[in-house]
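hiii so my PI (J.) wants the whole complex modelled not just the main chain, which honestly fair. so below is everything: two entries, each one labled with what it is. i double checked the lines twice but i was tired so who knows lol
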Amino acid sequence: MRTNVALLNILNNPKKTLLSLAGIGTAILLIFMQLGFRGAVENTATNIYGKMDFDILLRSPDYLHFMDSGQIERRYINEASALEGIADTNFMRVTVANWRNPQKLNTKAILIVGIDPLKSPFRVRTVDHEFSRLTAAETILIDTKSNREFGPENGRRFSESDVGLQTEIANRNIQIVGLFEMGAGLAANGAVICNEQGFRRIDPLASPDRVNFGLLKLRPGESAANKVAEIKDLLARNNSVPVDVLTRQEVVDRELKRWLGETPIGFIFNLGVLISFVVGAVIVYMVLGNDVANRLHEYATMRAMGYSMTYLAGIVLRQAGYLACFAFGPALVLSLILYGITGRLANISLEMTWERVGFVLLLTVVMSAFSGALALKKLMQVAPAELF
Amino acid sequence: MIAENLNLEALIARWTPAESDLSINVSGLNHFYGEGETRKQVLYDNNLKIRRGEIVIMTGPSGSGKTTLLTLIGTLRSVQEGNMRVLGNELLGASPATVAELRKKTGFIFQAHNLFESLTAFQNVSMATELVGTSGNESKSRIEATLTRLGLGQRIHYKPRSLSGGQKQRVAVARGIIHRPQLILADEPTAALDAESGREVVTIFQEMARNEDCTIVIVTHDNRILDVADRIVSMVDGQIRTNVLVQRNAVICQILNEFEIFRSLTPQAISQVADKMKLRQYLVGEEIIRQGEMGDEFFVIGSGQVDIEIDGTRVNSLGRGAFFGEVSLIKQQPRNATVRATSNVACFILSKDDFQAVLDSSRSFEEELRNAIFARQ
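here's the output for the full assembly
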């Protein structure tokens, strides 16, 4: 059994090693948090589309984000529905209006979603029965994930005790008749659902012939990509106004591209990951470089005894590996705890994925290998001739 | 007493080893530090032959080059000029593979100990055995036995920071010898040790030299251990100034002391003569000197019998303790007689210059010699 010099070196000075591990672990933790936030942005940005029931989406080329989506002619949906392979169609109207906080009576912008209560455009079947309560124009359902600043009775989130409550949207009286759970995403802090009459009450300028989204469902086995091309052709033939026809994947991709690519959000988090990586690498390098410098005479002695440079390099690289491994575990545990805390405080979903664990582990290994390799340069100063 | 019982022939064989018996053979070795303008010579034309199993003590003031010579022997520096064979390998231009092999056969003991701080005493020593591929229970018990013998039985699993200077040095010694090296290079291995453990260390050295033919080179100023040396090499200003085989010197001194001719010399002078004397063997019937030739050597018979012949006629017979060859040296004349071995003969020989030097240093010796010559005629 060979003496594990690398491990013994690491364990020899527990205080110093713990300090080093704390530094490296913090860097890894920061990477986890940055990636967590980035992931939360992705989830939140696409969350609402994830809840909507469609294979192909029609919307205006003017679409910027969910609350500034532009409008399309409602008849486009009908035209498209005539095509072979379309199983069902639906629509959705969206606007923003001022919600009066029933407790504090101040107003705040909220997302208004107008639907046909008889034919839900959402995937959330479990709350379908709630939609049937939207019988009158002044009835609305409120998103339980709406921010507390909209004024739930219990001060935290909307619940059964808020049902029956009356307040105003755009200075019109409305009544909460039920709840749903969605999460409106990055663009809005809260959402309500109402029927078509209710929607026009809140937004009198809305034309009955125009909607924000057309939702198409395909028959099983139909290829969305092929159908998209067909619909584009058809609509282009009949109309001069262009329409965006998108598969679900395209919708998600564009949403991610907008939030992560066109806003600084993605850049900030990526930069955060990079900086954390560099900080981690610098710490590993400093720890190892310092250690090698302190042990130069020991390494020189090994050379004199006949150990090869490869063996010496192995010790340094394995020390890097041990540092990375010992720092990774605690950093992972700590980041899971922080995900929970931050997620609850910020009301976003920070979820750990195996992909992320793997990716960060890979980053950690690369980080320590890179720094270890840099520290090897110091090994070149080993001079066995100076030992006597 | 030694002298009479000595088998001179065996001693001569021991003192003039064959090439294959040498573990270190240095010839014409020069060494330089620095480059270009700042290049400075630190070793000047050094020659040294060390036999397997010899214990060599190297002394000399600091800066005399003994450490440089030690690092060159240990392959820690590359040979620049001259030749150096160590354990049968030429080190001038040696390949990295040769160097690596040699290092594994060498045990280094550094004055600064250079222990591995993170490893226990046992693990420190174990690093040396692992490298040469011995491990397992046999190795484990050997390490424990060695450390115990060196008085570290209670400290086997202590790290260097919990050991005293002397204990660290003993761990360093154990690490240097545990893998049964064929060559041990030690720098002040007993400097930090008390008399008792210092003695134990040199005793181990002697056992390794005797039992395993291990060659041991010790740089030391510790005169408590001088007695273990087979050879004492002293260096001054980058050159080997004296290179004395201690036992040979002692034996020759003792023999010379018995001889009439050297009676007048002080012990110190005899020792100097002994240093300079060469030993040579002649077989029965061999001509040692021939009448009419110019002579440049002075002979003292250590053992055996010779005949003196003048013009082909035997005039005298000489034995142990007798000398010849002085006349032509003193008078600058050709040899006036032929000397022939009538048995196997071992002679102590002084060169003409050394002979002259002895004459110059001692008037009484010269007189003694003249009397002897006169008496012979």
